[in-house]
Write a structure and sequence with these properties.
Length: about 450
């Protein structure tokens, strides 16, 4: 299949961060050509493209659109998408113990499947093409089925919990069961669906995991070369529990048991000492900054600017639907750019360009996938988003090297996303999902949620 995205404003995110008017040739799963040319009318575009690429299966006119690399979110919970609106305005531990854990425990295969389906639908509609996802403890196969069917690029894994700190029975497992189920899931799903699916071991957080389980995860991640994904230092109450149990700060403890490293993704990292920040930077641990979640659960302001200055790998995520209540990367980019300026009284930090890098090429680099995704360059996988920049609210001045990122980070919204490609497959056309009916998914999800409320 040969498709051309013609006449768009291409924001490449290549090494020189070039952007220009031009066209992209997608052939099968790859970007085969990226060319620059002057803006042309629809008739001239056909002739121009035929001259460059010969016969193609489809030419999509992207006039009035920016063409961006697919967005990368490094922390989500598809399993919780059904539960948005079920736990607003609560403290973290209260929110977890009275709302989220009991709801997750009540999942069955069908409810976890539809929760993932609508979550992925929302992500794709908002231009997210890659996720790092934490499931619930059970029914992980159902979520992987949804990931496979919807075609999103995902690093995902079952949640692991074997330590009793207010954990409901339905989510408690023994270390042995947790490890053997995870191993079976690795064997079944890691590097499947044309490489779109990878496995990640996902112990929930230190509070709900025994040291033996955490250490077994480290060993398993080395054995199968899979990632580790957990929550860390999100909340003061959480780090106090870890301090009482281990006599150490949370990140210090994770470092001591060998949990940190370039394979590891830690969500939040809000409350950190200087030493802990150094550990994170030195071990090349990936940090997933979730600004909406941190504000909604009143976790605090993560020291993102400091971490970046120390060379730590900082990326972005929406977290789960109940603590957000969207899975909208444009919102996360906007908040990441704004909240730290306000908190540190410095409007020069977290500029739009560096925030967009965190959502694209820097996230790809952090995940070791920069040769595949994160920018629009020849030879990379065709994970591409087009963004309408002709709304009445859009910027009016000509785009320059400086303000092009301001349009994306400060002005654009998920509703401006028009077309989405993942691995060369067109999954969103004119803001409509192609593979599944949005109405049918919504009705199914609405029926399912009745059982939970
Ligand atoms: Zn989370």
């Amino acid at each position: 299949m040969k498709r051309v995205l013609g006449n768009g404003l291409i924001v490449t995110m290549d090494a020189n961060r070039t952007f220009f008017r031009g066209s992209i040739l997608i052939e099968d799963d790859l970007i085969k050509a990226v060319i620059e040319h002057p803006k042309c009318n629809p008739v001239a575009l056909k002739t121009e493209m035929a001259g460059h690429f010969g016969e193609v299966d489809e030419l999509i006119d992207c006039s009035g659109m920016m063409v961006l690399p697919g967005l990368i979110q490094t922390h989500t919970h598809l399993t919780q998408t059904l539960f948005k609106g079920m736990g607003d305005d609560l403290q973290l531990m209260d929110w977890l113990q009275t709302k989220i854990w009991p709801s997750e425990a009540a999942h069955d295969e069908a409810s976890n499947y539809i929760s993932s389906m609508i979550g992925i639908g929302e992500l794709i509609r908002g231009g997210t093409t890659t996720i790092v996802n934490m499931e619930t403890v059970h029914h992980t196969n159902a979520s992987f089925e949804a990931i496979r069917e919807m075609g999103i690029r995902a690093i995902s894994g079952k949640c692991m919990m074997d330590y009793n700190e207010g954990v409901p029975k339905g989510l408690m497992e023994t270390m042995k069961d947790s490890i053997s189920e995870s191993t079976a899931l690795i064997k079944k799903w890691h590097h499947t669906n044309s490489g779109l699916i990878e496995y990640a071991l996902a112990p929930r957080f230190v509070v709900s995991c025994s040291e033996a389980l955490l250490k077994a995860c480290v060993a398993l991640s080395r054995e199968y070369d899979v990632r580790l994904h957990t929550h860390a230092s999100e909340n003061r109450g959480e780090i106090q529990i870890v301090r009482d149990r281990t006599g150490m700060e949370n990140i210090e403890y994770l470092n001591k048991i060998g949990f940190l490293g370039s394979r590891t993704i830690l969500a939040h990292c809000v409350h950190l000492s200087e030493v802990e920040m150094k550990f994170l930077a030195e071990t090349e641990t990936i940090i997933s900054h979730c600004p909406t979640s941190n504000m909604k659960l009143a976790s605090g302001f993560a020291p993102i600017q400091n971490l970046k200055e120390m060379g730590a790998k900082v990326t972005l995520g929406a977290d789960g639907s109940p603590c957000n209540n969207e899975l909208n990367m444009f919102m996360e980019m906007r908040l990441a750019a704004l909240i730290h300026k306000g908190n540190q009284l410095d409007s020069t930090i977290m500029d739009a360009k560096s925030v967009f890098e965190m959502a694209t090429i820097k996230a790809a680099e952090a995940l070791g996938k920069e040769r595949e995704i994160g920018s629009l360059e020849v030879g990379k996988k065709a994970d591409i988003v087009t963004l309408d920049v002709t709304r009445l609210e859009s910027m009016l001045v000509p785009f320059t090297e400086k303000n092009v990122y301001a349009q994306i980070v400060y002005n654009a919204s998920n509703r401006d996303v028009r077309h989405v490609f993942i691995n060369g497959d067109m999954l969103l056309r004119n803001s409509n999902l192609i593979r599944h009916s949005e109405n049918e998914m919504f009705e199914e999800a609405r029926k399912t949620i009745r059982r939970f409320v």
